[in-house]
Specification:
single chain, about 180 residues, alpha+beta, six-stranded mixed sheet, 6 helices, about 35% helix, about 20% strand
Length: about 180
C-alpha cells in the first residue's frame, strides 16, 4: 500500500534528496502546487506570478514509515519560521507548505505544528501553510532526481548536502540501508 504526502520547504531539489534517504519512501517527485495557473513551467513558477510553491510529492509505505515521521523530517530539514524563503531562495514559490490529501493528514499536520509551537522548538512563529492539495503538477524531467544527477553542483553541495547529513544523523533508524 502506498500513500502520498506533499511538502514544500524551499528548493524542491533539496527536499527531494533528503526524503529519498528514508526507508519506506518509494518515490519522490518534484513539482508545483498551491497556485492558480494550469501546467506551470519552472520559469513561470520562479517568476512568483503563478502562486505555486516548489514541492515534492512523497510516495511512502505507511506500514514502514508513518506520516508523522515524514513531518518530523520535513520540519527538521527546513526553517518553517521563514516567510517565503529558505536560505538563498526568496519568493512565495519557496514558502513552507504542507498540502494535505486527507482530513487525517490535515489533523496530524496541524497537531504536529501546534506541538512544535507548544514546545517552543523555534524562536520565531511557524509560518508553514497547511492547505488542501488540489492539483500537483510534475516538474520538468531535468528537475527530477536533480541531486543524484548533479551531486557536485555548488547549490547541491551547499544546500542539499547539509539536509541529507541531518537526516542521516538525526533519523538514523529511518534511513535506508546502503
Amino acid at each position: 500500500m502506498t500513500e502520498t504526502a506533499t511538502f514544500g520547504g524551499g528548493c524542491f531539489w533539496c527536499v527531494e534528496a533528503a526524503m529519498k534517504e528514508l526507508e519506506g519512501v518509494h518515490e519522490v517527485t518534484s513539482g508545483y502546487a498551491g497556485g492558480h495557473v494550469e501546467n506551470p513551467s519552472y520559469r513561470a513558477v520562479c517568476s512568483g506570478d503563478t502562486g505555486h510553491a516548489e514541492v515534492v510529492r512523497v510516495g511512502f509505505d505507511p506500514e514502514t514509515i508513518a506520516y508523522e515521521d515524514l513531518l518530523r523530517v520535513f520540519f527538521t530539514i527546513h526553517d518553517p519560521t521563514q516567510l517565503n524563503k529558505q536560505g538563498p531562495d526568496v519568493g512565495t514559490q519557496y514558502r513552507s507548505i504542507v498540502l494535505y490529501e486527507t482530513d487525517e493528514q490535515r489533523d496530524l499536520t496541524e497537531a504536529f505544528i501546534q506541538g512544535l509551537a507548544d514546545e517552543n522548538v523555534y524562536d520565531d512563529d511557524i509560518v508553514t501553510e497547511v492547505d488542501p492539495l488540489e492539483t500537483f503538477y510534475e516538474a520538468e524531467a531535468k528537475h527530477q532526481d536533480y541531486y543524484e544527477k548533479n551531486p557536485n553542483d555548488r547549490y547541491c553541495t551547499f544546500h542539499a548536502d547539509p539536509k541529507i547529513k541531518k537526516v542521516r544523523e538525526q533519523f538514523r533508524d529511518k534511513v535506508k540501508a546502503d
